[in-house]
Fold this sequence. Notes:
Number of domains of chain B: 1
CATH topology of chain B: Rossmann fold
Largest sheet of chain B: 5 strands, parallel
Radius of gyration of chain A: 19 Å
Low-confidence stretches of chain B: none
Largest sheet of chain A: 5 strands, parallel
Oligomer: heterodimer
Strand content of chain A: 5-15%
Amino acid sequence: xxxxxxxxxxxxxxxxxxxxxxxxxxxxxxxxxxxxxxxxxxxxxxxxxxxxxxxxxxxxxxxxxxxxxxxxxxxxxxxxxxxxxxxxxxxxxxxxxxxxxxxxxxxxxxxxxxxxxxxxxxxxxxxxxxxxxxxxxxxxxxxxxxxxxxxxxxxxxxxxxxxxxxxxxxxxxxxxxxxxxxxxxxxxxxxxxxxxxxxxxxxxxxxxxxxxxxxxxxxxxxxxxxxxxxxxxxxxxxxxxxxxxxxxxxxxxxxxxxxxxxxxxxxxxxxxxxxxxxxxxxxxxxxxxxxxxxxxxxxxx
Amino acid sequence: xxxxxxxxxxxxxxxxxxxxxxxxxxxxxxxxxxxxxxxxxxxxxxxxxxxxxxxxxxxxxxxxxxxxxxxxxxxxxxxxxxxxxxxxxxxxxxxxxxxxxxxxxxxxxxxxxxxxxxxxxxxxxxxxxxxxxxxxxxxxxxxxxxxxxxxxxxxxxxxxxxxxxxxxxxxxxxxxxxxxx
Lengths: 301, 181
């Protein structure tokens, strides 16, 4: 694996090896000194053409915990405003000796393009609606931690499946680990089809006997575009205590954040013991440390 | 590779480890504050055996931890193949303890150096000892072992293979020679 763009071409064994490494990294994060010298001498750049705080912080912390040097590029404060292209920005960083690029872009395919422009490893930090592979990896890690295994487990993803790169990456990854993935949302927010996922406009069908429920963020833009009416959404698709009774007892709840409380998820559930939201954020650092280790060590420089 | 000689059989290995177990207790003036830490892979069963021998003759339990030094290697930025990282599990506080690091072979000293750095990040031991089954020479760093099963002068084109029942199905140490390329 030279880059992490999505999970096309990945094998189950590769994913499991990466998650095994992440478990070691999680143990490092429990130590008094939460830092190992493994990536000393490597430089990691976070290149965010679209703003994001938590993903960028998580990657930067992961790189620092591995003793890599970190440089950070954010579009809002940069010469991208002055019309510099994606390519020129990356070539500038390449000239500074960067070994890995974490790229977030609103346009799908930018990280993929980047692999032709730079010699270093490219990690997709989220591109358009296409993919957000490290989010799916931390979701899988968190689910495995909570459920013990994913073979034959039913995972329900609820909300705006159509516009969600998180749903798309989980649709690739979770079935690879043996899970049965369902997607539920209003018809206007469901794609025609999504390989690996059984789609339904009926929330109760997706939640029935589910082992875990992943709730997606409902973006304001969708309402502004007239795709969905807020009251209707809440009435039919909000994940509530009552609706969760369909799922397995104690089925945990995941959310990629940031959350709209009392929109996609009943507020009391967000703070309940079922919510794994904080575990997801916590595990994200360990998973990203593992991704950096797998991509950088052994790579021709 | 060509087989050259047997360096140790099962009985000799048992005696060497039994002696090391006694030396460890003697150096530590008992087993108070004593802990053993085995380095992946073969240091782990060796540490467990030393702990078992100490239990046999002292009647006291010495905690055993396991250490993976991969993330502390000094060659990660240049090697061509990524080594698999493995779990470190030291379920006790190292601060104030006398730690005996256990490994199968002491060669360049780079593994021991990495292990020392890893231990320092895990706590502040009052003393760290190094115990090895075989010391084959050719040190590249100022490191020496406190307890040695057997000193074996070797050539650099030779390979010392430690086989342990827990990992390899038998107890035996062999000397092999790499064929000229």
